[in-house]
## 1
Amino acid sequence: MIKLVIIAGGGIGGLATALTLNQLGVTCVVYEAVREMRPLGVGINLQPNAVRELYDLGFTPGDLDRMGVPAKEWALVGLNGNDIYSEPRGMLAGYNWPQYAVHRGLLHVALYDKLIERMGPEAVRLGSRVTGYRKDSGGGVTALVEHADGSTSEKTGALLIGADGIHSAVRSQMHPSQPPIHWGGAVMWRGTTWAKPIRTGSSFVGLGTHRHRMVFYPISHPDPRTGLCMVNWIAEVTMDNADGWKQSGWFRQVNIDDFAHHFASWKWDWLDVPALIAHAGVAFENPMIDRDPVPTWRDGPVALLGDAAHAMYPTGSNGGSQAIVDGRILGAAMAEHGVTQEALAAYDAKLCGPISQLILRNRGAGPFGLFNLVDERCGGTFDNIDDVIPAKERTEFMAGYKAAAGFAVENLNKAPQTIPDGSRVRSA
């Protein structure tokens, strides 16, 4: 008997999970609400732990180069332009795999195209949203599906994976008393600008303070004709959030003039922030939001994955990476336990606790927590960072975050493959 896995949501996590299950010989189908897959969004970082899994799924360095660029450096810079902390990234830091800064939409479409190539167009049912589920007496599950034309249907399978994002209907049913989406007061404006690369040519830079900062990094190789690359930037200001988020939506296009004044004086000999923002042409506003951790990601034959399980602040640049890793850990559990509830239990036991702690760590500023220390000790400006935070303390702070996020270099390099080559699920 074929054991079908239903995946609610065709985002990065849902598609990576479907590719993993296909690799293992497991039959699956993805339901995705959008009617057409388009390369939407701006930049994200793929940490080495996620790049490793993409390679094991059959992606090549050439594939990733077409959607982004290997990161060479991660740096924090204070308000007066002096370095707080910098370190090499990816293979320059000793990893066996690179870190990539990529265009999120290009990655998303690449995952989709790879899945359709391997499974056919029926693998992803576009214009179809899972609105809930019913656990069946025989141990399986029925997904309740709403289609773009207003009709509804049901699909029965052995397992249901809720990869349907921060507004997950699957999670809402699993945890009906969960608190509302959490907003800590930070507002982000995002955009991309063609600009000259700085520092190493492929540096991730956080600039400013913990309440007022810019983050920027290239997500393309330089154009050989102009020398310009596409720079992804996030401008962020933390404000009073006593009344909660009052805008009509969570993500909207805005005029540059709506927020550029917050950064009008941010000019140094190596960077002109007002020009970087102004040349974007278009920008998008969204609050920095997450969800409180839940005690379990599993309800019998149903499990959560990606943002549905662990929506977190983007301060650690690991939300998309973790969604990919989720799918691979879930696949490894099925390789061991089959397409069973035991596999979901093993997946939940391995990830829910530690990743829930990561949510809270990111809410507390994640690796940007060094900004907090600088502000506390010197008000944000300094001549020599060693007089403010000794080098050993800075290094230990960053090492603790990387260990919590699952990409400490020594641990990752020596870890066996999540799913060994040739693995198949029995009786799939």
Note: The longest strand covers residues 182-195.
## 2
Amino acid sequence: MNWRTIAAIVIGVLALAVGIYLKLFPSAEVMCGTEVMSPGDLCETTRRGVTRTYTYDEMKQNAALAPYALMGVGVLALLFGGFQVWRAKKKVAAEAPAA
């Protein structure tokens, strides 16, 4: 196995585990960066020079979707790693001399 395969499997397992943990034990607090939000608060974020403003409800909804996104990334990474393992085994079998 090459380093990409191992990295994909490790990242997949970690992302899946963190996603499951966040789903099973959700935080009661809605965060804007490192600050706790209350209903009626606004959260401003700037990425690549673009500033966006989110309401408390939007941030709460984003926080509720985060575990699913992590689990999705984990599954995709594990599928990629599994495919790489399968492909490597197939290549080794094709190169092996016939008995």
Note: The mean pLDDT is 92.
## 3
Amino acid sequence: MTTAAKRLSYTGTFTFQSGGNSETFRITHIVDSTGEHERLEVLDGSPREVVRSNDEVKCFLPDEKVVLVESRGQQQSFPALLPSSSANLGEHYTLRKGEVSRVAGYESQKIVLEPKDSLRYGHALWGELNTGLILKARTLNERNEIIEQYAFNQLQIGGAIDRNALKSKFGREGEAWRVHNTQAAQSRSAGGEWQFRAQLPGFKKVAGMKRMLAGQRGTEISHFVFSDGLASISVFIEPLAEQKVETSIYSVGAINVYKRTQGQHLLTVLGEVPVGTLRQLGDGIAQKKK
């Protein structure tokens, strides 16, 4: 299951539900001698697209006439939800098999990941029996309620897949749109003046990078990613300038967000983990004394 989504060619549609919102996507993923190539198209509302060739990702936003370009690196996405190695998942999740059932016409094995503490959410995954490709995934809160779900409605695994399905419908007109290169520079020194005093069992800092704030020349934002191999938490640290920001907590589907100020900086901590986890990490962030 950890490698199926990267090594297989497939095409289909899936539904994403988060909170009270639901969207349908079409995905085409082809693996050949040149690597991984993928096109993800939103079928509801504004016709957005994400086209990926190996690590280069282009996001087409026709309403704004904007193309966002970024390097995805090791970022996880559906249906590649699991890390490249699942060896350490058992330290913080209890894994067990569920029933075998049909999803999008395929027999699938249900795998349940129950958290061993209150720092993370539970997950249920349905992997296609022959290939392991994840056909459905649920995120479950501490009350075992579904807070986010992905599920394929229609799917073809392998076989002849038309490479033209990888081409953006906005490819040509997109050349005249505004291009925002949102590449983040990986940096060993990113946020070196900050310390993370809270210890979250299982969560390790896996990335540190610097980004330029859009429309603000010379203003850098530090971005850190912590992960336990399945759940991820992002921390953004940016200058406040003159604005005042109140401490706040809010949710967007399965993603919780915690904001607070530290001196002249705004700290934003977010991820698909319980609010208490974000607060624990966020309240332990402080500037190093000079």
Note: The chain has a mean pLDDT of 87.
